[in-house]
Amino acid sequence: MGGSRKRAKPAGARGRRKTGERGVEASRQANRKASGSSSFREALQAVERFLDASGRPAAVIGGVAVIAYGFARSTVDIDASVAIEPDELRWLLEVAHKQGLVERVADAEAFARENLVLLLEHRGSRTPVDISLALQPFEVEALAAATTVLFGGVRIRVPRLSDLVVYKMVAGRPQDLRDVEVLLSAKAEIDLPAIEGRLAEFDSILETDRCGLFRTLLAKVMRPG
């Protein structure tokens, strides 16, 4: 990790666990509710075209990805990640412009070089779009393994559930931790050893205890009642 970078990155016990009983209909209802705005769908389509055009491992992350797993959650922006180096930012901006995604801050390229996130918006709908630059091995692997789902009629790529949990634990904001709790209750198989292994690597780099926090959240979800 470079000393000048501000955005922290992670560096894969228990066995695999199947969680919860949320079904297909719950997923459909959450998707319909979140994607009810035609302008939001247009923005999401533009982002997906942009990710395709980049030709790099990429996926939609953030609140949209959580909703795609079947949970009703409010979101007004779109977060995505692309495996790309900072010196390719100018080219990436050209790709974004062709899909109607434009800078929403002054000198977005310089900001992205410093903070590893490109602040854009969809020109037509003014929907905020944050594009994170994936540099670390975990991120690149997670993006390469992303799965395609249908979100409000739009096909998007999202990280596997276990990888999305790691993303959320690393971000560590209150909303991210709430997202982890609901993701752990999904009707899906979660690779707990992989999650704890990744978080342990992250903890060793930044001297945090995300792994311990994850175990606390997992215990809370598993607690009867």
Structural class: alpha+beta
Kindly state the number of beta strands: 9
Strand content: 15-25%
Strand order across the largest sheet? 2-3-6-5-4
- The CATH class: Alpha Beta
Provide mean pLDDT, rounded: 86
> Can you tell me the number of structural domains?
1
Order of helices and strands: EHHEHEHEHEEHEEHHEHH
- Biggest sheet character: 5 strands, mixed
**CATH topology term:** Beta Polymerase, domain 2
In terms of per-residue confidence, which ranges show pLDDT below 50 for 5 or more consecutive residues? 1-30
Portion of residues in helices?
40-55%
Shape estimate: globular
Task: Output the number of helix runs.
Answer: 10
**CA-based gyration radius:** 17 Å
Concise structural overview:
With 225 residues, the chain is α+β, with helices and mostly antiparallel strands.
List keywords for this structure.
5-stranded mixed beta sheet, two-stranded antiparallel ribbon, disordered N terminus, alpha+beta, 10 helices, 225 residues
Care to describe what's here?
The chain has 225 residues and is an alpha+beta fold. It has a single domain, classed as Beta Polymerase, domain 2, CATH 3.30.460. The protein has ten helices and nine strands. The strands form three sheets. It has a five-stranded mixed beta sheet. A two-stranded antiparallel sheet has the order 1-9. The chain has a two-stranded antiparallel ribbon with strand order 7-8. α9 (192-206) runs antiparallel to α10. 38% of the residues are buried.
